[in-house]
Amino acid sequence: QVQLVESGGGLVQAGGSLRLSCAASERTFSYNVMGWFRQTPGKEREFVAAMDWSGDSTNYADSVKGRFTISRNNAKNTAYLQMNSLKPEDTAVYYCAADWRSFSALEETLFHGMYYWGKGTLVTVSS
After folding, report:
1. End-to-end CA distance of the chain
2. Phi first, then psi: what are they for 29, rounded to 5°?
3. Which site from 1, 17, 24, 45 is most exposed, i.e. has the minimal number of CB atoms within 10 Å?
4. What is the pairing mode between strands 46-51 and 78-83?
5. How far apart are CA 121 and CA 108, in angstroms?
6. Which of 15, 2, 18 is closest to 121 using CA atoms?
7. CA distances from 124 to 47, 86, 112 (A)
């Protein structure tokens, strides 16, 4: 059973940066795709970014393109989300997800339905 633990959330002013980390309990070749999602109260969970094992395939939500960067260090079993130029509307609980299926298959559903999930880390961006 893969366990994912997010960290790095906190309070930051608009225009600032944060880097989220997602530590996995198993070697990363147990799953191919890692992704980040976010959710605010009363809204559905929103896709943010995803990456395959090699890093050759990535996908970003339009709202974060050019500001957020997903990466992973397979040797450390960790994925990252570098968030720059943060806006108040980026405020949310951010969740890490992982899945063994192919990037293309998951991309067809915009990565919803990924199998493993962390418990989330809160990011608050003040104006």
Report:
1. 40
2. -80, 0
3. 1
4. unpaired
5. 26
6. 18
7. 18, 10, 24
| 81-106 tens-digit pLDDT | 999 999 999 999 999 999 989 999 99
H or E stretch at 121: strand 121-126
* Complete DSSP assignment for 54-102: SSS-EEE-TTTTTTEEEEEEGGGTEEEEEE-S--GGG-EEEEEEEESS-
pLDDT, tens digit, for every residue of 69-78?
Answer: 999 998 888 9
Collect all residues with Cβ–Cβ distance below 8 Å to 122 and sequence separation of at least 6: 9, 10, 92, 93, 94
Read off the DSSP letter of residue 117: E
Alpha-carbon gap, residue 20 to 10, rounded angstroms: 10
